[in-house]
Amino acid sequence: MANPNQDGRDGWGRYTRTLEAAQRRANALELRSHGLTYDQIAEHLGISKSAAFETVQQGLADTVAEPAAAARKLELDRLDVLYQAAMRVLEAQHLTVSHGKVVQHDGAPLEDDGPVLNAIDRLVRISERRARLLGLDAPNRVSVDAEKLGAEILTLLTNNAPDSDPGDDGDA
Question: From CA 76, how far away is CA 129, in angstroms rounded?
Answer without folding.
Answer: 9
